[in-house]
Specification:
alpha/beta; Arc Repressor Mutant, subunit A; D-Maltodextrin-Binding Protein, domain 2; two-stranded antiparallel ribbon; 11 helices; 45% helix
Length: 300
């Protein structure tokens, strides 16, 4: 059986017009074309749909039963076609993003604002989660993509760098290290340090880079969120270890970021995605906006 949408439209038009010629005019087809489509539908269904007389055309009992089903089928197909056109034209849709806490607070909102202004019919959902959860959600297909620390040696995920930050010391007001022109990692040995817990990808990246230089940091306080690091430094508990991504937050709390050298350690914020999953038109457009904005900011 090979029932087509054109056959169903022809059948509905003839049934409603009660005449092949009027139906043909409505469909902007020739009368012979409409007759052929109805005949093909009858052959496909194995059912006579109309009783044809010289001056009268009437639905058979079977045709009367098929008509509401045909109307519903055509309406459903029209809805699918309309929805697909809207999705392709970005008139509607949904984008879901997972971002680690600082990117969710300081980077992603600007992208959402720009995207919403351009495509108001698309809903954007932001999940502000830990860095480990970003990778998990992308891997499980729970979000279109993530923004955070690249997955490193986890080959089931792919990434594209968006920006590069530098690790630094977070200092309270009047701290002795603020007077130094240059602060090295070994200069931190005499101070109480505050940083991310073990297992955090940002910490793992830093520890690996420092280990190559024979440096091992001892954190006296280990916490989960960058905001907590800032709060503990502001509360006088020690010196924080973070990246320049937190500059705006540090400034708001009256803290100072001092870039650390010997070695200078950089951290990339990346767009993280599953290489084997296709993005919807809406998600693709959001990703293009993010990449374009970050590329432009780096060139500037």
């Amino acid at each position: 059986m090979n029932v087509t949408l054109r056959q169903l439209r022809a059948f509905i038009a003839v049934a409603e017009a009660g005449h092949f010629t009027r139906a043909a005019d409505f469909l902007e087809l020739s009368q012979s074309s409409v007759s052929t489509l109805v005949r093909e539908l009858e052959e496909n269904l194995g059912l006579r749909l109309f009783d044809r007389h010289t001056r009268m055309l009437r639905l058979t009992e079977g045709g009367a039963e098929i008509l509401p089903l045909a109307r519903k089928a055509v309406a459903d197909l029209d809805s699918v076609i309309g929805s697909s056109k809207q999705l392709t034209a970005l008139g509607r849709g949904r984008v879901s993003i997972a971002a680690s806490s600082m990117q969710a607070a300081l980077m992603v909102p600007r992208f959402i604002h720009q995207f919403a202004a351009r495509f108001p019919g698309i809903k954007t959902v932001l999940h502000d989660v830990s860095q480990a959860e970003v990778l998990q959600m992308v891997r499980a297909g729970e979000v279109d993509f993530g923004i955070g620390t690249a997955p490193g040696r986890q080959h089931d995920l792919a990434s594209r760098a968006l920006s590069s930050d530098i690790f630094c010391a977070v200092l309270p007001p009047q701290h002795p290290l603020q007077r130094r022109r240059e602060v090295t990692w070994r200069d931190l040995a005499d101070y109480t340090l505050i940083g991310p817990r073990g297992g955090n990808p940002l910490r793992e990246h830093l520890d690996f880079a420092l280990a190559r230089e024979g440096i091992a940091l001892v954190r006296h306080y280990e916490v989960s969120l960058p905001l907590t690091i800032m709060g503990m430094v502001e509360g006088g508990l020690g010196v924080g270890v973070a990246t320049t991504a937190l500059a705006r937050l540090a400034e708001g709390l009256g803290l100072t970021l001092k870039k650390l050298s010997s070695p200078v350690v950089r951290h990339e914020v990346s767009l993280i995605f599953h290489p084997e999953r296709s993005l919807s038109p809406a998600a693709q457009s959001f990703r293009d906006l993010v990449v374009a904005q970050r590329s432009g900011s780096k060139e500037a």
